User: Which sequence fits this backbone?
């Protein structure tokens, strides 16, 4: 059985390649949801998730009542804006500690049942990887969970910032891949985040995410340089 997150990732890659080939150029509107979903052979909810990811990447912009506008890829990915390649693991964790608790706090206030269902699907992928002892699938599912959280932000300025977080998260993939024994702990901590989101408990969701990132630092042997201490739940 193909998971929803796998379908969305596949659609994102297809659309990115189509944009790179010039099938749709800057200033064009993508076909309507029904038409494009039929062309790709997917459901409209999956298409909407994929478009949200493309928005986070700065490749398109949803215009209410009009459709999805294709952006200038060169403008969206200006050289020098992405500094994550030169970041250390400590830098990555500090960035995540700054942004992700705030993100999940907002998501807890605004997430609908479909959003929560998507998050739970990525957790299911993580659990399946854990049970199968599939190290690579575990890393991909872990990153997909956090990227799904990023995709639920609605502030367009904030979306451009969390793109950096997504890129930075990928920088820690090698460390995640080399510590598969911690996947169970990561799963448990992320499940606690989703429970708080489902309960619409913004403060608890933020606290759980802070606890998760602090635990990641401890697992990697990286003490975080944070300005103050937050109470744990």
Assistant:
């Amino acid at each position: 059985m193909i998971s929803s997150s796998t379908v969305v990732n596949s659609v994102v890659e297809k659309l990115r390649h189509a944009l790179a080939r010039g099938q749709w150029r800057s200033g064009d509107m993508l076909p309507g949801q029904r038409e494009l979903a039929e062309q790709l052979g997917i459901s409209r909810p999956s298409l909407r998730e994929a478009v949200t990811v493309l928005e986070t990447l700065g490749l398109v912009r949803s215009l209410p009542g009009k459709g999805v506008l294709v952006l200038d890829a060169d403008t969206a990915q200006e050289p020098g804006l992405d500094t994550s390649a030169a970041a250390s693991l400590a830098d990555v964790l500090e960035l995540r500690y700054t942004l992700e608790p705030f993100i999940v706090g907002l998501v807890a206030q605004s997430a609908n049942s479909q959003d929560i269902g998507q998050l739970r699907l990525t957790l299911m992928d993580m659990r399946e990887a854990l049970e199968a002892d599939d190290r690579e699938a575990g890393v991909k599912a872990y990153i997909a969970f956090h990227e799904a959280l990023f995709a639920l932000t609605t502030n367009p300025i904030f979306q451009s910032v969390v793109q950096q977080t997504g890129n930075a998260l990928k920088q820690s993939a090698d460390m995640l891949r080399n510590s598969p024994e911690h996947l169970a702990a990561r799963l448990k901590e992320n499940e606690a985040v989703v429970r708080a989101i489902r309960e619409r408990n913004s403060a608890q969701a933020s606290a759980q995410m802070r606890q998760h990132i602090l635990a990641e630092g401890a697992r990697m042997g990286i003490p975080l340089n944070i300005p103050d201490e937050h109470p744990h739940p």
